[in-house]
Amino acid sequence: MYKTAIEVRNLCIDYKIFKNVSIVKNLFHNKIEQQDYFHAIKNISFDVYKGEILGVIGKNGSGKSTLLNAIVGIFKPDDGTIDLKGNSISLMSIGVGFNEQLTGRENIILSGMLLGFSEKEILSKIDDIIDFAEVGEHIDMPVGTYSSGMYSKLAFSITANLETDILLIDEVLSVGDEKFRKKSLSKMKNLISDKNRTVIIVSHDLGTLQEICNRILWIHDGELQQLGTTEHVLDEYRKFML
After folding, report:
1. pLDDT tens per residue, range 134-148
2. Which whole number is the average pLDDT over 182-187?
3. Helical segments of 28-103, H only
4. Please, are residues 157 and 187 in contact by the beta-carbon 8 Å criterion?
5. Residue 27: pLDDT over 70
6. Which of these, 9, 43, 206, 238, has the minimum number of CB atoms within 10 Å of its CB?
7. Is 242 helix (H, G, I), strand (E, B) or coil?
8. Could you give the CA distance from residue 164 to residue 191 in angstroms, rounded to a whole number?
9. Rounded distance, CA 102 to CA 13, Å?
10. What is the layout of strands, in order, in the sheet containing 215-220?
């Protein structure tokens, strides 16, 4: 019997939509005028098994990144539950931020602690992280001075080298120049080849998902459209997108 690594039940995530009111007008109101809610994730339930590689597909705006952010704990569910079964988890995403006043080195330590690692564990990996990131002397400069490419490479390197039980990957294969992209892809394939590591990967690259995923979860407008074998769900998705 498969061991469950992630259990999602009746998950709902809503975004508040605000009226188009000027900042000046809002300064003189005790309460910002609220128009409605956007239901980004609508009552989704599924399990992910230990050692599984689950692909998540859907058109832009379907809720894929929102789902990953909820699983990793960045977003709090408005309803439903997410149970990680005691597993450590990290999100490999270009959108994950740093403290821009801190140096790259300081952000490595801070990010590692937020992932649940001790300072000793982080320091044992810090040289590998710095070498992989290829930001040179900038590692001891505030990340607010980094180019977008340097910022992204450091973010990727931290998550890739501080290995957790569960790895969430959100469209990160466009990081840096061509040389770094190839190195990143190789590193990611090495990470997900570990049979004890559970992976959820969001991507529009259906060929890559076809090659590496055990199952595919298809989200459409915040709802679970299909969950099943890679071949079947990708085939249905391609027909839908024609």
Report:
1. 999 999 999 999 988
2. 80
3. 64-72
4. no
5. no
6. 238
7. coil
8. 10
9. 32
10. 89-93, 166-170, 198-202, 53-57, 215-220, 223-229
